[in-house]
Design brief:
The protein is mainly beta. It has one domain: Lipocalin (Beta Barrel), CATH 2.40.128. It is 12% helix and 51% strand. It has four helices and 17 strands. The protein has a ten-stranded antiparallel β-barrel. A hairpin with a 4-residue loop joins β13 and β14. The longest helix is centred in the first third of the chain and has 22 residues. The N terminus is likely disordered.
């Protein structure tokens, strides 16, 4: 049961080596215990990616003229809070997996936690009769914080915006299905930004832009695990959908534009480990199916600069997982 977490971290686009991680003992804890354990272990990964890909939808509250366009490449970094470097393991929540030292609860590393053996408590794994099958240290974290000083979940997008009627912009994120020997990937997103200022008599004369944005994004990926221990039907599916609702304001100052917004963000991430997996004790079919949901208020502030025909921007969003976004593109208003 090796390398599944490495594939998860490949989705993160991280250059850090995450080591060889054997999930066999976790599967031997039974399907219910496996689901419970992996939900806690992977939580910062699913939350970070879900929060991150909601970044970069706008760099101004000013809408295009009819058929005006903008194209941008967007990179996001969602910062994992230190509180999510571990998760609380409670014996009472598990049937077949228990803490080796008999404690009722303990803090175990998440996927963004420590790799150090001293930070990875021993767990015991029992069969349906309560007989201990084996014991092993809990799964290690990525060690990313030790390598670069902080934990971050990166994501990237390509986005097109086009002006429609009544000061309304349509925003589209689209990457057609990319297929290789060991993975498939695609993304589609759509957003609508509408100028609110035009409808408010006492506001439309003020020297700034004011709009509303609603956006939805869907990322689908599938990875075939390439290892001597895996068959072609053993795959990892990772799918995330997000929604964003924000009120936006911006002010243009020569080549600079100051922009910001406040609203709410939601995400729904599914992770499925599919196929047949054989350990020394059992055979498991489709052993993991996780669904992670989250929502939070969101406020961001950013600055855009136009250099010749290129627009460069950066902003920081405060939400469940704070997100730093940079983008580069061009605009014809």
């Amino acid at each position: 049961m090796k390398k599944i977490i490495i594939i998860l971290c490949f989705v993160l686009c991280s250059a850090v080596s995450f080591g060889q991680i054997d999930l066999g003992s976790i599967f031997d804890g039974g399907s219910v215990d496996t689901q419970t354990f992996m939900t806690g272990y992977l939580k910062p990964f699913t939350a970070g990616f879900g929060n991150g890909i909601n970044g970069g939808w706008y760099t101004t509250a000013k809408t295009h003229k009819f058929l005006g366009i903008d194209v941008a490449v967007i990179a996001n970094a969602a910062f994992v809070p230190s509180s999510d470097e571990t998760f609380t393991f409670r014996n009472a929540d598990y049937t077949n997996i228990k803490l080796y030292d008999g404690s009722s609860s303990g803090e175990l590393p998440t996927i963004f936690g420590s790799q150090a053996l001293e930070d990875r408590p021993l767990l015991t794994f029992s069969d349906e009769n309560g007989d201990v099958i084996t014991s092993a240290s809990t799964l290690p974290g990525s060690g990313l914080k030790e390598a670069i000083g902080f934990n971050v979940v990166p994501s990237a997008m390509v986005q097109l915006g086009v002006g429609l009627f009544k000061n309304t912009d349509l925003k589209i994120r689209f990457i057609p299905k990319q297929t290789a020997d060991d993975y498939e990937f695609s993304t589609f997103g759509i957003g609508v930004m509408h100028d609110l200022k035009q409808w408010i008599p006492f506001v439309k004369r003020l020297p700034f832009d004011f709009s509303a944005l609603v956006a939805w994004n869907d990322v689908k990926s599938k990875f075939i695990v390439d290892s001597e221990n895996f068959q072609s039907n053993q795959v990892l599916e990772f799918n995330t959908q997000t929604f964003l609702y924000q009120l936006l304001a911006s002010k243009k100052l020569s080549i600079l534009t100051l922009y910001g917004g406040i609203g709410a963000t939601t995400y729904n991430t599914d992770i499925d480990i599919l196929g047949t997996y054989t350990t020394s004790e059992n055979v498991y079919i489709n052993p993991v199916s996780l669904s992670s949901k989250g929502s939070s208020m969101r406020a961001n502030l950013g600055l855009s600069i136009k250099l010749f025909f290129i627009n460069l921007s950066a902003d920081y969003a405060i939400q469940e997982y704070d997100v730093f976004t940079v983008s580069a593109g061009f605009s014809i208003r």
